[in-house]
């Protein structure tokens, strides 16, 4: 029996997920906001044949700790900047929905799908803190239940806006002088608890129909939204057993929402530091730890692996066999070196074990992941559910 | 001899509306990224100073129906400009962005990002709007009285400038506008509280310019 290859993503955070990563001599700490740095990371991910590059983002203002990297660029713009240089690499940018306009988000992600020729995705998230609310001054911070109810509406209206142009709305009919068939352009007419959006998008339906929608389901309040709306669900777990339980919970929720759980992949985060020998990996991690005065952990500590390519292969194999994940998101502790190790050593090892294809296929990100192009809710006079 | 004053040249991507002849068989796509990339590279090769993108946030209608005779369908301005930064080297990238239906903090961050990603080529054509028709696509609807739209625009631009320039050691300026103060803490904040916009901008975009080793 041939094994189903595991989907493989990488998430790049600043100088690396480790808070001390920027102090390492081979870090890119002085170039974190240069286009060259982001290009380097995207081109590495591209060379490694990874399915997805995740670009996280939030409006959380930097804290007072002078020992931490401060500042981050807008992730959708970074994604667009690197996409033309990394063809056929899935690029999924986080964009929050609490203080932003769904109309703007819809056309931004649609445009990312155009510039990446159908390899774009969106990870919606919420803004939880009063500090973020103060940056906008429009409303107060809200509880998780409220935030995710609003996020649910936001994802619904963003996808409705993607559908507001039928694929063949543009007719260029010289005989009648009509550029579009306006019967195939649909005002979304959305009225929800939190906002309303009247018109059709200004941007035509993107190449994938719907760019990939990725949601985290670590918070209980997010689970229902993920079950209804996500193409891929990301989880964080302290060990493989906990991931198995989380994946089961998610698949049950997806089924309860009336969808086929086999069409919604669950991808597990693994923080990684790969080195030629286990001793070198441990030594490198100890060095990174030594750069930081106190190692604070917020929320659930994710799975972390420091070791050899073969060891990482064992972990990936174990996670997939035990039903903990359909995909793995590697989160390098230190960049760019950590990603170089993954691409040059860990990925070839996974290919050698049959866990990854030699050459990833698919002419869009959805095709790569085995997902269908979504039907348009407005076609044949339909209205959004 | 004094050097002659030289003109600046911008290249307006024709895109939508009646400025574009679409019926010619050679007319290309108004939305494919290749069209934008080709246009930008051509402008750059011709030594234009900048490329210019217009914006309209609701499809035009005529007597309650979407106008179907002209080219329609355009990309998100920030996103396509960020992508164009990757296929050009020295062309200015000017985008039309509305101050009525965007909040100052996110605009500051988006323009700062575009400026970083293009190594200093971002430009903003600031426009306003107050019509309820466009507002129906946004959270606040047609919230702004026509006579207030440039007040809000001025405040928005002011906040963006402060987000981009206020550094950790910037003291409160004696010339600062009423109601505005710039704090000097390690995590400085720039606060404006006025009638039409309220924003406390502890700026990630500003910090972006100061990624230094401690």
TrEMBL record, chain A:
Occurrences of domain Luciferase-like (ranges): 27-288
Transmembrane portions of the chain: none
Record bears the keyword Zinc: no
Single GO MF annotation: monooxygenase activity
Pfam family, one: Bac_luciferase
InterPro entries hit by this protein: Diverse_substr_monoxygenases, Luciferase-like_dom, Luciferase-like_sf, NTA_MOA
Nucleotide-binding as UniProt keyword: no
Positions contributing to FMN binding: 57, 94
Keyword terms of this UniProt record: Flavoprotein, FMN, Monooxygenase, Oxidoreductase
Family: Belongs to the NtaA/SnaA/DszA monooxygenase family.
PANTHER family in UniProt: ALKANESULFONATE MONOOXYGENASE-RELATED, C2H2 FINGER DOMAIN TRANSCRIPTION FACTOR (EUROFUNG)-RELATED
Protein name, as recorded: Monooxygenase
Automatic annotation (TrEMBL), chain B:
Single Gene Ontology MF annotation: monooxygenase activity
Any Pfam family matching the protein: Bac_luciferase
Taxonomy, superkingdom: Bacteria
Keywords in alphabetical order: Flavoprotein, FMN, Monooxygenase, Oxidoreductase
Luciferase-like domain: residues covered: 25-166
Gene3D superfamilies assigned to the protein according to its UniProt record, in alphabetical order: Luciferase-like domain (3.20.20.30)
Keyword Oxidoreductase belongs to the record: yes
Matches recorded under InterPro entries: Diverse_substr_monoxygenases, Luciferase-like_dom, Luciferase-like_sf
Protein name as annotated: Luciferase-like domain-containing protein
């Amino acid at each position: 029996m041939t094994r189903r290859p595991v989907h493989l993503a990488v998430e790049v955070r600043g100088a690396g997920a480790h808070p001390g990563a920027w102090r390492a001599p081979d870090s890119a700490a002085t170039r974190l906001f240069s286009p060259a740095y982001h290009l380097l990371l995207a081109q590495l991910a591209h060379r490694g044949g990874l399915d997805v590059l995740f670009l996280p983002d939030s409006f959380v203002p930097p804290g007072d700790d002078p020992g931490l990297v401060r500042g981050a660029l807008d992730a959708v713009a970074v994604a667009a900047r690197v996409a033309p240089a990394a063809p056929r690499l899935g690029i999924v940018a986080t964009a929050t929905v609490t203080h932003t306009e769904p109309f703007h988000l819809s056309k931004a992600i649609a445009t990312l799908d155009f510039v990446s020729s159908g390899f774009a995705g969106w990870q919606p998230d919420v803004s939880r803190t009063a500090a973020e609310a103060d940056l906008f001054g429009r409303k107060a911070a809200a509880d998780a239940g409220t935030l995710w109810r609003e996020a649910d509406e936001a994802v619904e209206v963003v996808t409705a806006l993607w559908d507001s142009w039928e694929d063949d709305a543009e007719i260029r009919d010289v005989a009648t002088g009509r550029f579009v068939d306006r019967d195939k352009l649909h005002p979304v007419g959305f009225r929800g608890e939190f906002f309303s959006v009247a018109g059709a998008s200004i941007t035509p339906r993107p190449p994938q129909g719907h760019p990939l929608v990725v949601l985290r389901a670590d918070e209980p309040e997010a689970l229902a939204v993920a079950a209804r709306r996500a193409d891929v669900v990301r989880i964080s777990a302290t060990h493989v057993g906990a991931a198995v339980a989380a994946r089961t919970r998610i698949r049950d929720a997806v089924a309860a929402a009336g969808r086929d759980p086999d069409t919604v992949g669950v991808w597990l985060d693994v923080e990684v530091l790969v080195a030629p020998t286990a001793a070198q990996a441990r030594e490198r991690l100890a060095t990174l730890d030594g750069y930081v005065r106190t190692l604070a952990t917020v929320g659930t500590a994710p799975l972390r692996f420091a070791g050899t390519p073969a060891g990482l292969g064992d972990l990936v194999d174990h996670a997939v066999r035990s039903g903990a994940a359909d995909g793995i998101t590697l989160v390098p502790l230190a960049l760019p070196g950590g990603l170089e190790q993954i691409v040059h050593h860990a990925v070839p090892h996974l290919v050698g074990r049959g866990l990854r294809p030699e050459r990833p296929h698919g002419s869009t990100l959805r095709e790569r992941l085995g997902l269908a192009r979504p039907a348009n809710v407005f076609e044949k006079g339909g209205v959004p559910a | 001899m004094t050097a002659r004053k030289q003109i600046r040249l911008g290249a307006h991507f024709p895109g939508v509306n009646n400025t574009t002849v679409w019926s010619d068989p050679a007319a290309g796509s108004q939305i494919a990224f290749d069209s934008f990339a080709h246009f930008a590279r051509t402008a750059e090769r011709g030594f234009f100073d900048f490329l210019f993108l217009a914006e309209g946030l609701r499809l035009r209608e005529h007597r309650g129906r979407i106008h179907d005779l002209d080219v329609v369908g355009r990309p998100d301005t920030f996103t396509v400009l960020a992508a164009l930064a990757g296929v050009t080297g020295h062309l200015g990238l000017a985008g039309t962005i509305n101050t009525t239906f965007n909040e100052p903090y996110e605009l500051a961050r988006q323009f700062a990002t575009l400026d970083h990603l293009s190594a200093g080529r971002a430009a903003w054509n600031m426009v306003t709007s107050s019509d309820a028709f466009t507002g129906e696509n946004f959270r606040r609807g047609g919230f702004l009285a026509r006579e207030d739209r440039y007040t809000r625009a001025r405040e928005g631009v002011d906040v963006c400038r402060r987000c981009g320039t206020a550094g950790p050691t910037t003291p409160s300026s004696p010339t600062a506008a009423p109601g505005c103060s710039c704090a000097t803490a390690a995590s400085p904040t720039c606060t404006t509280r006025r009638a039409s916009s309220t924003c406390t901008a502890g700026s990630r975009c500003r910090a972006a310019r100061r990624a230094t080793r401690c």
